[in-house]
Design a protein that fits this description.
alpha/beta; 6 helices; D-Maltodextrin-Binding Protein, domain 2; about 30% strand; 5-stranded mixed sheet
Length: about 190
């Protein structure tokens, strides 16, 4: 969780990118729900304030937090040195890892040429820095990358292991390929 200001109000507004289950998603009533919402609600209960939740694109969370458009951001944000220079973080509450997915029987890590990653994520950073064999394509959301994967515009996706696991449970034609990536310089 990232924060840029101290809070002394009766209400605390958290921003998140709600297309990232199980961390955050929108239910049929339009409410943001998920693991990060549960964490935020526990924080609000502990400090005796009311939680409010605001939808924001992932790549605008830190710039908007710095501009004080909300009080805190909580959206499976990996802590990096660059981000920690911009905003304050809580202690890590989730051990992040990355994984690759592809359509079943369509691509391997060796045969893939095009990779999809979400804008502003450590997965995008890792892909650019460490995977020169792929041509990266950035997406506003993981769901957009999934659509391009299904239509053959990209071969593989790199993303958060827990999020991709949730996605695979709903998209049986997609599978994990290769090993988890646990580079502590990038994912922590």
């Amino acid at each position: 969780m990232g924060s840029s200001i101290a809070v002394s109000a009766q209400e605390l507004t958290f921003a998140m990118e709600p297309s990232y289950p199980p961390f955050e998603t929108t239910n049929a009533k339009g409410e943001i729900i998920g693991f990060d919402v549960d964490v935020a609600n526990a924080i609000c209960q502990e400090i005796q304030v009311t939680c409010k939740f605001k939808s924001e694109t992932f790549d605008s969370l830190i710039p908007s937090l710095k501009a004080k458009r909300f009080d805190a951001a909580i959206s499976a944000i990996d802590i990096t040195d660059a981000r920690a220079k911009q905003v304050l973080f809580s202690d890590a509450y989730y051990d992040s890892s990355a994984s690759y997915v592809a359509l079943k029987g369509k691509a391997t890590l060796e045969s893939a040429k095009n990779i999809g990653v979400q804008n502003g994520t450590t997965f995008q950073q890792y892909t650019v820095a460490e995977t020169k064999q792929y041509s990266p394509k950035s997406y506003a959301s993981l769901q957009n990358a999934i659509l391009d994967l299904k239509s053959g515009r990209i071969d593989i996706i790199l993303g958060d292991t827990a999020v991709l696991s949730d996605m695979i449970s709903k998209e049986p034609e997609i599978q994990f390929i290769g090993e988890k990536v646990t580079n502590k310089k990038i994912f922590w």
